[in-house]
Design brief:
FAD/NAD(P)-binding domain; 12 helices; Tetracycline destructase Tet(51)
Length: about 375
């Protein structure tokens, strides 16, 4: 079996830098490429829970995450006129307890990039073609360069180009859960202070939260829709879709949509799950949302990415470079964890976006149910010790 060493990792989200960290730590030579010109700052919040906390501590980044965590102290449900329906402490509002941490996605990515050490990281670089051969993978980049790698890892998210290039259409299924999500920042004109406010009714939800920066508020929109966007990646169409859907919704919606025009960090996507029987093919593997996105609603994507990255790199080390054996073990060990998190994603999706206006009773019952389930799915895998 030829020595496996030079590994291309595509995508500088959460999974990409995480798998680079573990590959480097276990003696391999990863190279990271990212299509964007630089790291995307801010973004929506993600959670670190269960076994992912153990991994963060093992990586030496847990304290850094704690130092940069969000600090929402109060969660509040309001009605269309802004009257308070129900309040909860911030951690419970976000379904967190104990050592669980919430952090902005961009902050976590920066921490992971810093943790990679001397792993080469090339921005504004993307792959045009991937050709697998008996002893290597030939990769052509957008600038015309052609490089050879022992393995290629696609960590390029829900809309993975790597997945489309390497896997046949019948080898993966994208399951739309019938809802959409958008987030962007606006001025904190309500003067919220470490507070997250939500208005939910008619299968729509809008939130507004201000955390460490008192001048900025992060807004979020979630909604079910019968109509499907013709082009999910067209930002102009996304913004139009959002305006049409939330027209005359109530609370602060009109003002927020007005301020959206000046926002420069607009994000929009569907609640979609990626389902695959195998995340590996030949010398190519998928890690994180590219292979097993559970949808952004439960906030479990970062946990799956961290766990998947660790198991992938660890099994490659354990197999002493026998990637066939490592890939089989990666698929085998991770499958139950992914299946549980995807079932949980469906449960959360069905629990939110109620038909009527959310009530104190609905909010409390939902919170209890989700917190009970999230504890189970976040800890239902025993991580091997690869050291």
């Amino acid at each position: 079996m030829p020595i496996i060493n030079k590994i291309l990792v595509i995508g500088a989200g959460i999974a990409g830098p995480a798998v680079c960290y573990w590959l480097r730590r276990f003696g391999f030579s990863p190279i990271l490429v990212e299509r964007c010109a630089n790291l995307r700052k801010g973004g929506h919040a993600v959670d670190i829970r269960g076994v992912a906390i153990d991994l963060a501590k093992s990586m030496g980044i847990y304290k850094k995450i704690c130092n940069m965590r969000t600090q929402v102290e109060l969660g509040r449900y309001v009605d269309a006129e802004g009257n308070i329906l129900h309040e909860e402490k911030g951690e419970r509002f976000g379904f967190r307890e104990g050592d669980d941490i919430e952090i902005l996605r961009g902050d976590l990515v920066q921490i992971l990039i810093d943790a990679m050490g001397d792993v080469p990281c090339h921005f504004n670089q993307w792959v045009e073609s991937i050709k697998q051969r008996d002893n290597d993978v030939e990769v052509q980049f957008k600038d015309g360069r052609t490089e050879l790698y022992d393995l290629v890892i696609g960590a390029d998210g829900l809309h993975s180009t790597t997945r489309r290039m390497v896997f046949d259409k019948d080898e993966y299924k994208l399951t739309n859960l019938g809802a959409y999500f958008s987030a962007f920042s606006i001025p904190n004109y309500l003067n919220l202070n470490h507070t997250d406010v939500q208005f939910e009714a008619n299968q729509k939800l809008i939130s507004m939260a201000s955390d460490k920066n008192p001048k900025i508020a992060i807004t979020g929109f979630c909604f079910r829709a019968q109509n499907v966007l013709n082009n999910l990646r067209d930002e102009n169409e996304q913004r139009r879709f959002l305006r049409d859907t939330f027209q005359d919704f109530g609370w602060e919606t009109s003002k927020i949509l007005e301020l959206m025009s000046d926002s420069n960090d607009f994000y929009f996507d569907s609640f979609t799950q990626v389902k695959m029987k195998s995340w590996t093919k030949g010398r190519v593997a998928l890690v994180g949302d590219a292979g097993y996105c559970a949808s952004p609603f439960p906030g479990q994507g970062s946990n799956q990415a961290l766990v998947g990255a660790y198991i992938f790199a660890g099994e490659l080390k354990q197999a002493e470079g026998n990637y066939h054996r490592a890939f089989n073990r990666y698929n085998e060990l991770l499958q139950p964890f992914v299946e549980a998190n995807q079932k949980f994603g469906v449960l959360v999706n069905e629990s939110f976006l109620v038909r009527d206006e959310v009530s104190k009773e609905v909010a409390e019952e939902r919170s209890n149910k989700i917190m009970q389930e999230i504890k189970i799915v976040s800890n239902m895998i025993s991580l091997p010790n690869y050291e």
